[in-house]
Each structure stands twice: as C-alpha cells, then as structure tokens.
Amino acid sequence: MILSVEGVSLAFGGVRALQEVSFDVKEHEIRAIIGPNGAGKSSMLNVLNGVYHPQKGTIRFKDKLFHDMDSHQAAELGIARTFQNIALFKGMSVLDNIMTGRNLKMRCNFLQQALWVGAARREEIEHRRAVEEIIDFLEIQHIRKTPVGRLPYGLQKRVELGRALAAEPTVLLLDEPMAGMNLEEKRDMCRFILDVNEHYGTTIVLIEHDMGVVMDISDRVVVLDYGRKIADGSPADVRGNQAVIDAYLGVAH
Amino acid sequence: MADELSGLDTFPKLLMHHAKVRGARPAIREKDLGIWQTWTWSEFADEARCLAAGLAAQGLQRGSHIVLISDNRPRLYAMMAAAQCLGAIPVPLYQDAVATEMAFPIQNAQIAFAFAEDQEQVDKLLEILPQCPTLKRIYYDDPRGMRRYAQPELMAYDKLLELGRESHRRDPAYVETEIARGAAGDTAGMFFTSGTTGVAKGVVHTHASLLGPSLTAARMEHLGERDVILAYLPPAWIGQNIFSCAQAFVTGYCICCPESAETVMTDMREIGPTYYFAPPRVLENLLTQVSIRMEDASSVKRWLYRFFMGVANRVGGAILDGKRVGFLERILYWIGDLLVYGPLRNVLGMSRVKVGYTAGEAIGPDLFRFYRSIGINLKQLYGSTETAVFVCIQPDGQVKADTAGPAVPGVELKFSPERELLIRSPGLFREYYRNPEATLQAKDTQGWFHTGDAGYFDPDGHVKIIDRVKDVGALADGTLFAPKYLENKLKFFSYIRETVCFGHQRDKVCAFINIDPDAVGNWAEKRNMPYSGYTDLASRDEVYDLVRECVERVNADLAAEPEIAGSQIHRFLILHKELEADDGELTRTRKVRRGFIGEKYQSLLEALYSPQTTVHVSAQVRYEDGRTGTYSADLKIRDARTFPPAAAKRAA
Question: Which of A25, B88, B116, B637 has CB atoms 3.0–4.6 Å from B83's, for a disulfide?
Fold first, then answer.
C-alpha cells in the first residue's frame, strides 16, 4: 500500500466537497476515481497533492502519516500531477516546459546557472538527457522546439504528462487526461499511460469521465457521489454496482 | 578511386575496406535523444561483423533470405550488411505495409529470419506467423512495449549482438572467411516491386548490378567521403538502398538517419546534406509550405520575395548552368542570394546540396525551375527497381524540366516500334524471384529490359517519357491519348492533388479530380469560406470554378500540341474522398491505379459520359476521430471549355 486516505472530509464553508472518504492505492497499480460532475474527484486529487487541506482525516504516504499535505512537500515526496485545464507555459518550448518538471532536482544556485559553468553545465546536460528520454518516450521529437501555445490540445496534454514525468514521480495524479480528445488521441494517451505504468513502474491515480477508458486501463476504481464514496473495487464490480448505476443514471425520488 | 576499389566487388568487402582506410570517418549518424550519434566506419564494420557471427550461430545460411522491416536506422543497415557478410540476402519490406502484404514475400522465398524495428512491426509478423510456418526467428531493435512477449521466435537485437560478440571472440576468422567467399555475381538483395501491375515480384540484384551503376553515377557527380546524405525514404525502395547503401559503400560518404518521419525537415536543416534525392511530390510539398508562409508574411517581405524570385526566374537557372548573364542581372542575383535565396535554401536544409535528384514522376516545369533558380543543382534521373536506378542522368549544364536526360555511361537505350523504352545495362536485375515467366517477359533473350514506359529521344538525345506503354491509348476517333501526360499537367497546379483521366476508346476525355486540401483550404480561408472537411470543401461551387480554370488552362496548353490537341478534357468531377493507398486506389508509392478506380467508381464514370450534371454517390467515409459513417450526396459534374488547335495561342 503506497498511499491510503482515511476518513478525509473537506468543506468549503457550507459546501461539503468530501465526506469521510477512505480508500487506498497499491504500489504500481492504475487507480481510477470516477463520479458524476461535482462528486469531489478533483477535490480528492487536490487533497492528495496538498492544494486543499482537509478538515478531517489522514493521508498515509509511504508509511508516513500526514494530516494534510503541503504541495511543495508532496512534490518532494514524489507525487506529480497534471491538470484538468492544462497548466503549461504557453510561450515556452516543449523542451523548456518539460525541463521545468526537473526543477526540484536542480541543485545549482542562480549565479551558477546564469554563468553556466562547471556544476551548472554538467547538471543541465544531465537533466537535458532525462528530458530527451521523456520526449523520446512520448514520441514528441517533432515538436521539441515548438512553443506549447501553438500545439493542438491533444499534444499539449501529452506535454503536460511529460512535465509530470520529468519529476520522476512515484505516484502520478492525472486529472482528466483524456478530456476533449478525439478517439485517436485518446487511444494514444491510453497507450502512454499504460507504458508509463509499465516502463517506469509509476503508480497512477486518474480521474476520467470516459467509462470505456476507465474500464479498460484501470486495475481498481473508486466511485464518488456528492462527496461520498459509494463503491470501490475492480472495474467489473463497479460496473455492476447498483449504487453506481443510480448515481450515473439518476433514480426516482 | 578506381585503384582504391579494385577487387572490392561485394558490399561486405567494401565495408571492411572503409573500416581500414577511413575507419575514423563517420559512416552513419542517427539522432538519438536529441543528439546526433555517430558510428564511424570501423564501428559500423565491427557491429556488422559481430551481428554476422550472431546470425551464423543462429543458423542463417549462405543463399537464404532475411526480411527487414524498419525505418532508416543504423541498426537496420548493420543487419543488412551482416546478412551480406554471410552471403545471405536482405529483403527489405515497406514499413507501412499491412501484415497481409508482408506474408507474400515471406512465403515466396520461404524466409526463416526477420528483423523488425519495434513492437508495431513485430505485431504484424506475429499476426502472419500462422500463414508463414517457415518464419523461425524475429529480431527486434526497440524493446518498448514488448516486456510481456514470450513467443519463442523473438529475440532482441542486443541479445543477438551479445551472442555474436561471444561467437566472434571464439572464432575471429570465421566472418572474414565468409566475406572472402562472396563474389560479385552473388545475390546482394531482393526488392519487392510496389505492385502497380498486380502481384508483387521480388527483383533479384547481385552485388555487381547494385554497385556497378552506383559507382558510375558517383564518379559522374564527383561524390566522395566528405559527402553527406539524409536517408528518409523507405529502405524497401531500391532508390533509398542505392543512396544509403550502395553509393555510401563505393564512396565512403556519411548516411544520416532522421529522428522520425515528422522531424525530417528539422533534421535536414541540422545536417545540411550535400547529396539529396526527393520525389517531385516532396519537392512540391516543400514549395507549398514556403508559398503558404510567404502569403502570411509582411508586405515588405512579400514584395522582396516576389521581386527577387522574378530575378531568379530570369537568370538563376542560366547562372547555375554556367551560361552568360548580363552584369546588372548578376549583381541583382547576388543581392537576391544574400536576401532571399540563401536564407530560403537554409530553411529548406539545402544550403550545402551539391547535387539533388528528382525522379519517379514527371515534375512540373515551374516547380523544377524554382529549385534551380535559387541555386540548388536539382536534376532529373530515370531508372527503376529492375535497373538499379541509374539509367539516365542529366549532366551538369544540360538540365531540362521535361526530360530524363541522356543514358549514363555503360547503359544502352533504344525504343521499340511501339515507343517502348528498352534498356541494356550492367545494373540490370538478374531475375524475378521464382517467376521465370515474368523474367522472360521483362528481359528478352538479347538482354534488353522492357521498361513498359513509352517515350522518345528529344533533339539533344535526352530521353523523354510520356506514359506507360499499356496506358497509352486512343480515343474512339483514333486521337492519341496519354492519360498520365494529362494527369501530370493537371497535377502541376497546386490546387490539384490527384487526378484520373479516362478516354481510351471513348469519344472524349473526362477526369476525376482530387483537390489538395492544404492549398485549397488556405485559398478558402483567405476568402472567409467556412468548410467542415475535405468532402465539404470538394463540393463547393467556388472550388469547382477554381478547378475548372485549371482544367481550361491545361486544355489551352494541349491545343498548342498538334498530336494530342484532340485529348482535351471535356468534363470533370471532384471526388468526394481523397484517393488512398489503404483503399487500394493508389500504390504504396502513390501512383494512381486507373483501372481499379475506374471499376470502383463505375457509376461516376458512366455519369461523366452521359448528359447528367449531377451524380448520386453513397459511400463509407472515415472521419478524423476514427468513426465511420455513410456519406451520401450528389456530386456535381462540370464542363470545361476546350479550344480548337488554331485558337490555342490567343486563349493561352
């Protein structure tokens, strides 16, 4: 068990985003969080990497217990994420954007970097190599030097995944990695997620709306509705669960 | 150079020679992780030697075949060389072929060994494994995604190399002995023809037939070890093999493999090849990109571009040919070179190009002149898989847009009474593999190869090809009808991507048109014309008018040529979909399959020859997001103005 969440509750004033949610993530698995709009999926992810601080509950990560995470701390511990509405530097090249993902691994100070001598130079070459490996992995060599703002949506998503990978995370949080993509882009993204999981051994927690994708690639699924966990299990279990069907299709009151 | 190569009559002997003579010079480069990595000739030779030892240990025998499916990669070329060291025969296949297309070559030659670049190609081979029981070993280069593959046939390239190193250590003399056993007359490679004419045939070439013409051409163009080429076309095509194997092996120049198909432009700019080949379609795409970017440039830049391209058009070609040009024009051209041509060549990655070839299809005179006028020594050549490419080359100073050039030294040419070009040359293939009937049909008892191309010699002794002999037909009234000639004339317009002309044994010529979605799309954008996709764009009245203008200009052109003035295009329609190789409408080398298209769109064809002005079509279409749907609509048919031969001059 690499990550477990116990009894987490989060409220914004009167809005209860999460209520007593508990679940766990095994090492090396692909764990999906699903649920209708406003179910608290993104809030859950934000709790996991320390953007939101829950009022109640604990998070256990690699046998360390936290009441709440601090986002800087989460990044240092090896939790990386992508965002629902792409958060890249539009004017910077793909290469530079991915390079920012290595930020925490850079040791040289500002002056050394500016002069680009000795250690700073060695360090950059080393980081560049790591970044190039990711570029190769995600098959985006042809846009290496293109400003991100000029890329189509599907590729921007891929670049964002690249930046998250650059931090060499142990847990990767993906917030709707396939939203707004066409079939082919989705298929590519699925392949990359599975490859990341297999090749780097990264544990993946993802939020996704496309049920086909979720059922195909995830090992276990947790379902939220109105901030509560209503189901948890293998894709097949969840699909057959009455509470889930009701939540998605609505039920007569 | 002749002395240097004496006695080196096979590929592996040449490879070992270069390792000795220029061991530290670059042989092959590949961009890996964003950095160009180099194998020197001695590293290349060493890799090939170890692989050969490994393959021998795995049971690859002299005279047996090995299939290779890969993009241009150093490891692909090392595998080929390794097979040749053992006297085995490399059979490169097109990497974009579907699995079923790969089964035939493997069955045909009962091939046991295969090399595949990555998971995609391995999957194809595994798919056809049941139909190809002879296939026993599949080596793969990139292990990504194959961690869970447990098929006993599979082995990683690295593993093979390791086996080979060990085996080479045990018996270092083995590979050298095998190399020494090779002779010029041995088979060096087999290339499957693209199948314009039905079933693919394996064209068997010997070391002599590949290396001989390569050396002749290399001498003609003064190629040497300092030259550089970018290997970006499919290795299964004999041309790529000649440019990135045979000619590299006779001259010792450096081959560069681009990072991926999408990065070719960038890689070309970084490498700056000195020797270049591009089919007309690639050159055209490049020019289209330049034109589109120019249209979006600022007005000052546009003016500069237009002015200096005018200068280049007048004198650029003449300067390149070493002809006399007025002093003022020379000054202007020099300024233009500083401001426009130089930077343009740089953007195209052609700053260092010493000689560039184009072949495969007819090239538009404007397109051809464009490249020459900005100082790129682009020339035409003529050849085919069966002739190891080099049959005709235009020598420096005698370059023309509409011919293929005179025969290369050592090549004999003549035309049959039916206007078919016949060739006898040292580069002729030995045979079609296991197809003596076809061999006899193509190569007569006196050794003349029947090309199937129709043409004639122009007054300067250059060969001019007009069409395939079998496609040259006649209208019902006996007028000469050369469809390819018409199609090419139409395709020279940037708005037209493909076209198919019909007219044999009919009373007039009619055409199917495919518009170029980029060029027409840009044109539509400029006019604020919204459209949803190719099909929508193709059905617009404005686009029909645009195409009609092109057709009428071709007609005016044709009217000026007395023999074919009667084959002007009377009616045309714009097809609702782009012609695709995947649908069998084009060959893998993107040539139209006229007969097949005629049958597939029978109803459209009939409509063209009836008085109808629309024709109903319903077909399955595949949208960009992968869904398929049915498209059903009325295609418009339009008449085009034709010109009486006499009126031609005025109308044009």
Answer: B88
